[in-house]
Design goal:
alpha/beta, Jelly Rolls, 10 helices, 18 strands, elongated
């Protein structure tokens, strides 16, 4: 709106000022609306190979959150009608001034002139369970109000802990401010594979709607996808991919949740990056870009290995070379934890399989039946060793013995930053309804000791038409 002018010259100068402001805003590439669908993948950074991995997912993934300072990549996303959201924090005891300073910084950062106008969006990690009337609730609300007024053309996204959904009536101050100031609320609904409390998905949507009726249209659920550390892929019986598909299906078919514009997931640095990001992108494409409500998966809830934890040898054939293949008990082995995550949720049971390499390779095999040749499958196994840096192999063989897929690690006994177990993982397309899974120490040196457990095979996505 132009303010009153006493003469035409002043009015012309005012109009010119407004046009200049609009021109500058347009030149930044900033979006005034979130992408639709809003499919946000957290965890991007400028590490080796990360940007190339994300490029494979765009534009199925429409918002990428992270810490990148690669102006060329951010501009590239704009050209594909996608956005980069800069990661910012919400320290529990920060003042309003500190929060505003942290949150506005990406909007003012032009990366040394390479990104005129700064970042288009920020993603706040995260709004917490500061109840109504608490000092920190007031601080966060004040900071969001100030930020919104200062940057009306920028995108503000905010993740929120589960309490703001389940106990929405205790957080009405933050939720009212979010409805007024935030473009997308990303509400964490982290469901473990072993505790599939799917009822939270419709229940929390009803809670939000009761407190802020219009907030649901700008809310997406953040799904628990971590497969390392703080782990959600924690059942040896259930297909984790089917678990994710079930959540997407519920969101798209619920009378309230189907009004949501997308979904969010922390994925890249805590998941099996060779499979999970691609699977989530395909789910997003099916349910949100194409708008389909039918199941993407084949409906199988259970993974396909009949005896995944090797408490007994039932269903397995053990084939020693001139070394040894036998079952072991965790209580008899020092330094080997009977789980592969930071909370002990992924229990390995009382024992597993031990291989000791002689001059010839050892093998353990199990047959899988009823597979669909029209679908890609995923096979995985967890392996450990008594010494770091040992080699171990996993193969998928056809009924006639042809190798359909194979993978190897040289990290057995080294593991990840959270645990010394290492996961071998491979994708394959069965050439018939029956295949054989093989664990081996073929490339290991003589004397290598390997411990195996938690073997899984899951149906993934339809094979691409030739």
């Amino acid at each position: 709106m132009l303010w009153p002018a006493k003469n035409l010259g002043v009015a012309v100068r005012q109009l010119g000022f407004v046009l200049l402001v609009l021109t500058v805003a347009a030149g930044t590439g900033a979006a005034t609306e979130p992408p639709r669908p809003f499919i946000c993948m957290y965890g991007h950074h400028d590490g080796k190979g990360v940007t190339e991995a994300f490029r494979k997912l765009v534009p199925r993934i429409t918002v990428i959150e992270g810490t990148s300072r690669n102006a060329a990549f951010i501009k590239e996303l704009r050209g594909k009608k996608c956005l980069y959201a800069a990661h910012v924090n919400n320290p529990p005891k920060a003042t309003a001034d500190r929060l505003v300073g942290m949150w506005r910084a990406p909007f003012e950062d032009d990366l040394g002139g390479k990104l005129p106008g700064g970042y288009d969006a920020i993603a706040i990690d995260e709004l917490r369970q500061d109840v109504d009337g608490s000092a920190q609730s007031g601080v966060v609300c004040q900071a969001l109000d100030r930020l919104r007024k200062a940057y009306p053309q920028k995108q503000i996204y905010a993740a929120a802990t589960w309490q703001l959904g389940r106990n929405a009536r205790q957080h009405t101050e933050q939720l009212a401010t979010v409805a007024r100031c935030v473009d997308v609320l990303m509400l964490e609904v982290y469901l473990r594979e072993s505790r599939p409390t799917y009822g939270y998905i419709p229940e929390w949507a009803a809670e939000l709607e009761a407190v802020q009726p219009k907030l649901l249209e700008k809310t997406v659920y953040g799904l628990g996808v971590a497969q390392r550390g703080y782990l959600f892929d924690d059942s040896p019986r259930t297909s984790f991919l089917a678990h994710l598909d079930a959540q997407f299906h519920l969101i798209r078919n619920g009378p309230r949740t189907r009004r949501m514009r997308g979904v969010m997931f922390w994925v890249y640095y805590r998941s099996q990056t060779t499979v999970t990001p691609e699977y989530l992108a395909r789910l997003s494409d099916h349910y949100f870009r194409l708008g389909l409500s039918s199941r993407f998966g084949d409906g199988r809830k259970n993974q396909l290995v009949g005896n995944p934890q090797l408490e007994t040898v039932k269903g397995w054939t053990l084939s020693p070379g001139d070394g040894q293949v036998s079952l072991f008990r965790y209580r008899d082995v020092k330094g080997i934890e009977p789980d592969h995550d930071s909370n002990g949720w992924s229990g390995h049971g009382a024992g597993g399989l031990k291989m000791t390499r002689g001059t010839k390779a050892n093998r353990a095999t199990t047959d899988l039946v009823g597979l669909d040749p029209g679908r890609i499958h995923v096979a995985s196994a967890w392996v450990q060793s008594d010494k770091p840096g040992r080699k171990a192999g996993l193969r998928i063989l056809s009924a006639r013995g042809r190798v359909l897929a194979s993978t190897e690690t040289s990290r057995a006994g080294t593991g990840s930053q959270w645990d010394k177990w290492t996961r071998l993982l491979v994708t394959f397309r069965p050439d018939g309804p029956r295949v054989r899974l093989e664990l081996n120490d073929e490339t290991s040196s003589e004397g290598t000791v390997l411990y195996w457990d938690y073997i899984e095979v899951e149906s993934a996505w339809p094979a691409e038409a030739k």
